[in-house]
Amino acid sequence: MSTDHPDRDVNAEDQPITEISKADEPETVKPEAVKSEDGDLAVAPVEKPRRLTMLIAIAAVILLSDILTKVWAVAAVKPGQPIEIIGDVVTFTMVRNPGAAFSMATSMTWILTLVAIGVVIGVIKIGRTLRSPWWALGLGLVLGGALGNLVDRFFRSPGIMRGHVVDFVSVGWWPVFNIADSAIVCGAILLVVLTLFGFEPNGERLRDHKADDKKFTESKAAAEGETK
């Protein structure tokens, strides 16, 4: 007599279990579908994170470093008594600078102060929608440097908006400078390079836009050709 159950599938033991409960399936994040201008559905691009926090953090580090080194320089470096670091090539030399970075435009203190304020406002405005980490780095360097020298303009003699900036780093024939000056120059160079290579503050690249526009034009032309 057979002991097999009449309703049992004899091949059930040989069949692999293929069903997985929905609870065990990995969760996937699906991009949101949006309508294009032509009414067709398109996948919305995933937005990159904003970089304002990164920009502020970099600016804060530069500002704090600039203030602390200037406080030290005022206390330790006496005018006319440079401190040699690498012979007479690299020294700490105290200079009170009424002008811009590297002692330029020494007779335009008021104007330079207003320009610096404008730079700070402009950087903050751009930073609110910033998504590129490289732009955040460049703008953070510029912002921190501008704020560092603005502190001197407002709080050092001879008075508010006319204060002389403390410069103390001397390298060879190069004009005496400070950390704020270095940050401004490095940040500005980085921003110029990013602009030349087509990197935009929103994290995208100019040539990618051109490639997308070209593909869109070609696909549209092909679609129009099929409808004729």
TrEMBL record:
Involved pathway(s): Protein modification; lipoprotein biosynthesis (signal peptide cleavage)
Output one GO BP term.
proteolysis
Q: Where is the active site?
A: 167, 181
Asked if the record carries the keyword Protease, the reply is: yes
Could you say which EC number(s) this protein's record lists?
3.4.23.36
To which species is this protein native?
Rhodococcus erythropolis (Arthrobacter picolinophilus)
Protein name, as recorded: Lipoprotein signal peptidase
Q: Which InterPro entries match?
A: Peptidase_A8
> Cellular location of this protein?
Cell membrane
